Fold this protein.
Amino acid sequence: ERKIWRHNDVAHLEELLAAEPYERPKLIVFESLYSMDGDIAPIKAIADLAEKYNAMTYIDEVHAVGMYGPRGAGVCEREGQMARIDVIEGTLAKGFGTLGGYIAGDAAVIDAVRSYAPSFIFTTALPPAVAAAACAAVRVLKQRPDLREKHQRQAWLTKHALEAAGLPVLENPSHIVPVMVRDAEKVKAASDLLMERHGIYIQPINYPTVARGEERLRITPTPLHS
């Protein structure tokens, strides 16, 4: 059985948890950083509810690993909540720049996934070269908090420059910079114009990735952008 709780609404989550028997197995699945709006989940509050109502937690950190926390382990690390989350999902793409993904958790949970998940059993393993590149990227980012600081500063500068120019930037506490266009044809035209005239590639975000009327350009500046 699956129940959907309203986005980042811990009061609604508690209502759903309270309606279930304490001893019934329950799993709260959520993201740390939401990639379209750039908002961040209230991880501590969710972990508190999980403990109160005997639920497990599964968090998706794919848009945060490499970019948050003292060692780049994600928002959970930054907020001191890693030990309270049962399963952490991450990617070796995005911040780490390769491909593949992973989950981290207790050995018993990981063994269960390894034994019973069709998506694991019938998936080809990463080639050694890709695995080596991913390991190298992890080693670098664990030791380079300065890159994370530069990355956050570039995002802050980009947001403020766009806002100063009168563009509708969606406010959020992360590195995601959504410029709201709210029209499918116009957002595609803006993306094409940026590429054709300026050599700047910014992906237009359309339905079904976002709701109709929420079309946008999503800018993700890096530490090396000027």
